[in-house]
Amino acid sequence: MKYNEDKVDEMTLALLYLVMWSEHSMTRAWKGFDWDTLDRLYQKGFIHDHKGKTKSIVVSPEGRIKAKELFLKHFEK
Questions:
Q1: CA–CA separation, 40 and 48 (whole Å)
Q2: What is the pTM of this model?
Q3: Sheet holding 56-59, edge to edge
Q4: Residue-wise over 28-60: b if at least 16 C-beta within 10 A, else e?
Q5: I need a surface site. Which of 20, 24, 54, 72 has the fewest CB within 10 A?
Q6: Helices 5-16 & 35-43, crossing angle to 10 degrees?
Q7: In the chain, where the domains are located
Q8: Fold assignment, 5-75
Q9: Mind listing the pLDDT tens digit of every residue in the chain (77 residues)?
């Protein structure tokens, strides 16, 4: 199936906002999303490398800001 990867990336980043928390001056999020999408978010600089055994990812400062912006854009009442 073909789909718009940029839109999927946008929605995934917005949904990451729901599962973010701060820990030791870093923002982290659970990484239960499609690996290809997480690869693209990594390439765009929104998250740090997600490969490994940890169940969470580190979100870049730019990623945190963009995730909040997208979450409010798509889900705010």
A1: 11
A2: 0.89
A3: 20-23, 26-30, 56-59
A4: bbebebeeeebebbbeeebbeebeeeeebbbbb
A5: 24
A6: 90
A7: 5-75
A8: Arc Repressor Mutant, subunit A (1.10.10)
A9: 899 999 999 999 999 999 999 999 999 999 999 999 999 999 999 999 988 888 999 999 999 999 999 999 999 99
